[in-house]
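Wait, mind explaining this?

_____
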Amino acid sequence: MDAPLDVAAVTAALAAATRDRVGRVVVVPRTASTSTDVLEALLADPTAWPDRSVLVADHQTAGRGRAGRTWSTPARAALTASVLLRPPVRLDRFGWVPLLAGLAVVRALGDVAGVRAVVKWPNDVLVAAPDGSSVPGWGAWRKVAGVLGDLVATASGPAVVVGIGVNVSQRDGELPVPSASSLALAGHGGVDRTTLLAAIVGRLVALDERWRDAGGDARAAGLADECSAVCSTLGARVRVELPGGGVLDGTASGLASDGGLEVTDADGRVTQVLAGDVSHVRSAGLA
């Protein structure tokens, strides 16, 4: 179990990592979900949460994932935080925000822990299993972090609450599923959560600025190529369980202009997927 987060240290680290481009910083000892807290706070007083505000919890008991899933971690064993972004770009380009956050996590893990990580579209960050064992749908990779974006309407325009959870020091028996791992289990123990948070937010703010400068056009900013380069889903045979029911089989062939996944079926038809559970049937040289 890591030491408790210190609000002064967290605030100073975030200010340094973002060159004072962070908004409000809140550190709480325990909460059900950092993203739910930010969403509820926005409804109560939107002006109290400026662009790039951060809420981080020492212990999150009911984190939210896609499709209404929830998860929990032992106290102080994970980094659990939410970042509020208010990008002045077209709404149809907001789909890039979770992908930029995933890229930020991948790069921060390399910076802080020296670990190679990849993104499983749309919101899972994976590291290699130390023993090389395989799990169906995941190959020899394990989920070490997750990203979830919540779109919210405010009086000053749409905003995105980006929830980020990284498994840091969990041991065997402290993770919910065989496809999960932690930095400690992957051989990268001793990572300081404040340092990791600052690295992630610093990377995210830098990517976000490039994206905004291009008007939300990730391709023009060069960010689409950078997201593609760390996405293990691209080139893999996939099976997508669609939100409304049904299954799509094919090859993940690219990222669409709005951040969606392009899947090419056996007949050469390309379908754009905006949401769904993606299983890797055959990994593109990564498993």
